[in-house]
Design goal:
The protein folds into two domains: 14-59; 65-192, no CATH class. The chain has a five-stranded antiparallel sheet with strand order 4-3-6-7-8. It has a three-stranded antiparallel sheet with strand order 1-2-5. The longest helix has 44 residues, at 16-59. The protein has helices spanning 16-59, 113-124, 185-192, and strands spanning 65-70, 75-80, 86-93, 103-106, 110-112, 129-142, 145-162, 165-179. Helices cover 33% and strands 38% of the residues. It has 196 residues and is α+β, with helices and mostly antiparallel strands. A hairpin with a 2-residue loop joins β7 and β8 (165-179). The protein is rod-shaped, with a radius of gyration of 36 Å.
Length: 196
């Protein structure tokens, strides 16, 4: 074996172009990593905001009306249970045997006995008390947005005999029968009427 020294590989310095290329590659990798972190953070924030919106929607109260008797049962004043829901207009449909056309109110939500007294006296037969269904399309404002509610309510009524005139219809109150009614509200109200 000979004692010849091993040759050393020559040390080569990087050119300026190679240094710039390596630095560009490092900066691109750091930029990609930073963008990826930012996108993940945005996705988390978006998901949190979506959860908050869903919780807020779930926490929003459903539209529900109550009725207050006025004028000794001649009228029921309607109001939303939740004060942040302001009723704008309403369209009311009774079963065709009680009233064939719809009634519209604007800014004064109510039910009046005079709207249904004649039809109710005929349709009720011998019954002196009961419940009459009414389909109600309500347009209301909530959080600055116009919304609608389609529901069926039951109106409590009683008939009181009068001398030389037909029975007096007295309204007794209002209760919710069904929410989110699709299709024809008058037909839906009519489907509840025979059940009484």
């Amino acid at each position: 074996m000979s004692d010849t020294p091993r040759k050393r590989l020559p040390l080569r310095w990087l050119t300026l172009a190679e240094v710039v290329g390596v630095l560009a590659l490092a900066l691109a990798a750091l930029g990609y990593w930073d963008n990826h972190r930012a996108r993940i953070q945005e996705d988390r924030e978006r998901a949190a905001a979506a959860r908050e919106r869903q919780a807020e929607i779930g926490a929003r109260p459903a539209f529900l009306m109550t009725g207050t008797l006025e004028a000794d049962g001649e009228q029921v004043r309607l109001a939303s249970v939740h004060p942040e829901q302001v009723i704008q207009t309403q369209t009311l449909w009774f079963p065709k045997s009680i009233r064939s056309d719809s009634i519209e109110t604007t800014g004064n939500p109510r039910l009046e006995a005079g709207w249904i007294d004649e039809g109710l006296r005929k349709a009720a037969g011998k019954a002196k008390a009961g419940r009459a269904p009414v389909g109600v399309l309500t347009v209301f404002i909530e959080d600055g947005q116009t919304k609608t509610d389609r529901a069926l309510y039951q109106i409590g009524y009683s008939l009181h005999p009068r001398v030389l005139r037909g029975d007096r219809v007295k309204l007794e109150g209002l209760s919710l029968a069904r929410r989110n009614v699709a299709g024809d509200l008058q037909a839906a109200a009519g489907s509840l009427w025979p059940a009484q």
